[in-house]
Amino acid sequence: MSTAPTSAKDAALQNKHTRLAGIPTFRYMRRFWPFYAMLAPGILYFLVFKYVPLLGSIIAFQEYNLYGGFLQSDWVGFKWFQQFFEFVHFRRLLWNTLAISFYQLIFAFPAPIILAILLNEIRSMAMRRTIQTIVYLPHFLSWIIIAGFGYMLLSPQIGLINHMVKAFGYEPIFFLQEPSWFRTIVVSSGMWKEAGWSAIVFLAAIAGINPSLYEAARIDGASRWRQLLHVTLPGMMPAIMLLLLLKIGHTLDLGVEQIYVFLSPITYEVGDIIDTYAYREGILKGEYSMTTAIGLFKSIVGFALLIAANRISRSTTGERLF
Description:
This protein is mostly helical. The protein contains 16 helices and two strands. The longest helix is centred in the middle third of the chain and has 29 residues, at 179-207.
């Protein structure tokens, strides 16, 4: 008895879609202009700030003249790419970038996932909101302030950590001047700053899980651990894979601020990355063609990694970015 109305409804919907498909484009846009008006600011933003600047990538193949612009600059082909690849410390830059990115992927990426799961287990809503506010506040601090906190904690003279070290009878450790501690400091400071903010995405993913799945799991006698493994984590998997793929695509893009505030000539051997080298070449020396070539190189590698990771994710987990 209920089949006929459903079939009639589907037929009416199909006829509506058929009629809309026959409408010319300008008439369709005129009919649904409010939706296009809402899309216009976002489209304009990407056109002006994302796609139009891509035309400036041409200076990676030129001897860029700041006063003449890229229209009056001499063409030099792959000169800057070759110069970058033949740079005496290119291998060090690439290795440091990959190493720090790998540490962030292993330690920093799971941190907000674990934090979101722990926050979700707090039954008191007031306590949960209080803790969540405390842990995501560091996101709004600049890296200069974070570096100041790091100095106060790790200084051999006034640092809290070294006061504890000396209390146990050991000599103070020069954390900020020790190359062996540099990557640990960078990754852990990034975790402290961003874990709370990133956990918001995973908390939203947990909130979107159907409560009936937990009820069914409890009826089947599943413990809290089993509910986490078989309900919570599968429900979070689309968000986890999406952010993981984006993270892999930014493997070579660590940013300047986080590294630069802790970097010193003593720690160049383990902390000098592609971005800090590009900063020195572009901002301090004015080699805009060189930095554009570096940025183009990073973009190509990141795009290739994203395509590969997306295909692997699609074949193994069924989740994909596109």
